[in-house]
Amino acid sequence: MPQVITTNLASLNAQRNLNASQSSLSTALQRLSSGLRINSARDDAAGLAISQRLTSQINGLNQAVRNANDGISLAQTAEGALQESGNILQRIRQLAIQSANDSNSAADRKALQAEVAQLTSELNRIANTTTFNGKKILDGSFQSQKFQVGADANQTIDVTISDARATALGNYSYDSTNNTAAQGLEVAAAAGATLAANNFKAQAISINGSLGQATISAATLVAGTTARTVATEVNNVTGSTGVTATARTTATISTLTAAGTYSFNLYGQNTTAVQISTTVTSTSDLTALRDAINAQSGLTGITAEGTGASLTLIQAEGFNIALENVIATGGATLNLTGGEGAAVTLGSAVGSDSSTVGGQVTFNSENAFTLSSSVAGAAGGLFGAAAAADAGVTGTLAAVGSVTIATQTGANSAIAVLDAAIQKLTAIRADLGAVQNRFGSTISNLETTSENLEAARSRVRDADFAAETAALTRGQILQQAGTAILAQANALPNGVLALLRS
Q: Which candidate, 390, 128, 76, 359, places its Cα nearest to that of 224?
């Protein structure tokens, strides 16, 4: 090998290896000091891109957890306010029960109504002032609000909180007694009329409620259908509509033209005639007739109320009330009046007169609903003469804000409204509880997903301290050795001087 001094190849080689070991040592030091395997794009370009995508997703999931926790906080705020609203409704109902008792004077009921007015105002105040982060949440404006619970766009949970004001809590209802006389399930128009002539024609009824829509066919609601059957069929589809129905038949016996013996066959839930016969001593005192009817209540399901010149007959299940073969001594007569007020005069010496009174159907729901019939009201449809075929009628809201317990009648009506309001408020609270549980499940899932993505990112991005420590030690040894060897390599040209001296 020639001896040269211009080019020291050994030194150059030692320098190159020393630089390489220095770079490896610097990389090891950087990774150990930062804890990251990837500190710049040149460390691992593909790994950097993957870790950045994972970081975006992890950050999004962590924020989504905070969003869901905000949702829980909002629901808890609303539910806490509704708890006090429920206490107020219970107190108003208690006052209504108290007012319904006849031991109260008019002044007592006025005082009770004054407290109801104050409680109703407080109910409205709570609903109008309960806020979360400046947003009202109980006044009906919190509709379909979206909570972002995912790392990507449109991964949301929709939350709606129903109106909890006194003007929105109550019972939606429609009563078939809204019909005009002789329409729908009402009194037969003339003495001797049969049930089929009671003007209820075969018809389909459509119900559109909060849960959906359902139709009861005309094959089910045939001509002459009783109120009880209508209510039963409506209740059979309650799960699809959210609308329930009750049936009740009322009729009035009045205007007896003379004292004497009255007898007739009475039909309610019974299909076999039950004869009623009694002597009325005074047209202004029908106690004997009332007692005779009530003595057969076990068979007919009909009860009679009243002590004066008129009796109210009640069939609480909605069966028709029919009087058949009415016989009165001396040609006396009586009037049979249906729930609408249409009256039929009955009575003869031979018992040829008869008439039937149909019942009233009341539709109820916590939420708004509409009803329609395939038959116009004037032609025997359920919903009155004013309603054309397939024309809808709407349930009317009896709200807590409009209840009055200043009278016994008002107090009794208020109880039903308050029961519905309490049930509605309970349903709102139940929805909020369900939302909180859903958010809780969402948080658990988000945290699990975030944890797994953190692990995936760690495998891509984080430094392996065992490997990097070994690399550091290796780099340090190579640095020391390289430095020593470079010193020796730099001294090699000195051998040429020995030749010059010789």
A: 359
Cα–Cα dist 31/478, whole Å = 18
- Would the CA dihedral through 460, 466, 469, 471 be positive or negative? negative
Residue 323, token pair as written in the block:
């009087």
- Which sign, positive or negative, has the C-alpha torsion 436, 439, 445, 450? negative
Residue 156 is inside which H or E element, if any?
strand 156-159
Question: Which option is the CATH number for 51-170+403-451: 3.40.190.10, 1.20.1260.10, 2.30.130.10, 1.20.1330.10?
Answer: 1.20.1330.10
The 10 Å Cβ neighbour count of residue 215 is 16
User: Which tokens is 115 given?
Assistant: 């407290």
b/e sequence 62-90, b meaning 16+ C-beta within 10 Å:
eebbebbeebbebbebbbebbeebbebbe
Side chain identity, residue 262: Y
Half-sphere exposure for 303 (CA within 13 Å, toward CB): 5
HSE-up (13 A, CA, CB side) for residue 416: 13
Supply the DSSP string of 37-87, one letter for each residue.
S-SSGGG-HHHHHHHHHHHHHHHHHHHHHHHHHHHHHHHHHHHHHHHHHHH
Distance between CA atoms of residues 5 and 487, nearest Å: 15
pLDDT in tens, the chain (502 residues): 666 677 778 888 888 888 888 878 887 888 888 788 888 888 888 988 998 999 999 999 999 999 999 999 999 999 999 999 999 999 999 999 999 998 999 999 999 999 999 999 999 999 999 999 999 999 999 999 999 999 999 999 999 999 999 999 988 887 765 443 333 333 333 343 333 334 567 888 899 988 999 999 989 988 878 889 999 999 999 999 999 998 888 899 998 989 989 999 999 999 999 999 999 999 999 999 999 999 999 999 999 999 899 999 999 999 999 998 888 887 788 888 876 666 778 876 555 677 888 888 888 888 888 888 887 655 556 665 444 555 556 777 889 999 999 999 899 989 989 999 999 999 999 999 999 999 999 999 999 999 999 999 988 887 878 887 887 788 888 888 888 887 888 877 777 777 777 6
Nearest to 161 by CA among 468, 457, 436: 436
**Greatest Cα-to-Cα distance within the chain, rounded to the nearest angstrom:** 172
Name residue 28's amino acid.
A
- Cα–Cα distance for residue pair 111/145, rounded to 1 Å: 42
Cβ burial, residue 258 (10 Å; 0-12/13-18/19+): middle
